[in-house]
Each structure stands twice: as structure tokens, then as C-alpha cells.
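Suppose you are handed a protein chain with no further information: no name, no annotation, nothing but its sequence. What can you learn? This example shows the usual starting point.
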Amino acid sequence: MLKFICLLLIICHCTLAERKVTFLSTNVIFNPKYFKNYTLYIINNTMNMDMYLNRQIQRGFKAHIDYQLRLANAKNFQTVFSHNTDVCAIVTSVRDSLFKSWFLDMSKHGNFMYSCPVEIGHYYMRNWRMGGSMTHRFLMPGEYRGKAFFFYGKYKAKSYDECLVLTIDAILTN
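A reasonable first move is to predict its three-dimensional structure. Written in C-alpha cells, the prediction is:
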């Protein structure tokens, strides 16, 4: 019985321990129809962003988000989880979600708008650090790639109008 209790304490400690996200790299592809410039960069493991909008971001602005994992000794990343979401609906919703918690935390470090439409202009984020509590609990420690495709229309259909593609590589550790 003592062995069982010790094992249970070890398991609980491992699951409750603060997870750490270390940013490795970023890549951005933006559509000049929507953005004058979009820069995403890492300094001292903090994320920084400068965005210059050419047009308003309106209702119907969506994102397709892929979480990818690279297994040990593998060359390629494999998709673990994909999700489509309406960006404006999440930002203005009272419902809590992981994406909304990210947005709220990021907004403490920048000048994001809390509603759509988002007006033409310059938006920024400075020195944002992703806390381990902001990761899905089902993600095991490892090397991850997050890809976010922002668009209007239907994802990868004829109506698809790509606005922005963000790629962020990171390591998740316990």
C-alpha cells in the first residue's frame, strides 16, 4: 500500500509540475491585400509581434489551427490535433476556451482590440511568454509546431481567401 501511495504522489507531482514552453522559431506569410506588414519574432523566449492592417478584420475571419509533433529521430512533424474556429466569435464570446485564454493573456502585452471589426492600423505584442498552463493537458513533452491559417470563406475550398499563415516551433517540457 505504501508503494502505491508513493507512486500516486509521484504521478500527481509530475502532472501538476509547471510545464515550460520554449519558443524555437517563427515564420510568417501574409497577404499584402490585408497586411502592410506582419512580423513575429522571439527575444529571450518571449514572443513579439508587429502587425499593420491594410483593411478591417471583419466578422467571418476564421483560423485553422494545426498542432504538430515531431517524434524522436523523425524528420517530419505529424498532426496531433486540428481545429477550425471563428476568430471574431472567440474574441467577443463570454465562453472560456484555450484560444480565448491565449488572446486575453496576449492582450495584456499589446494593443489588441476586443471586438470586430478591427480597424486599420498598427497592432503589437511585446514580451509575451506562454505559460505551461496555457497548453493542452493531453500534449506530451516534445518538439511541436503550431500552424495557424487565418482566412475568410471555407478552409481550402473555392471561397478560401488566405490572409495570414503563422508557424511557431517550440519545445514543451515538464
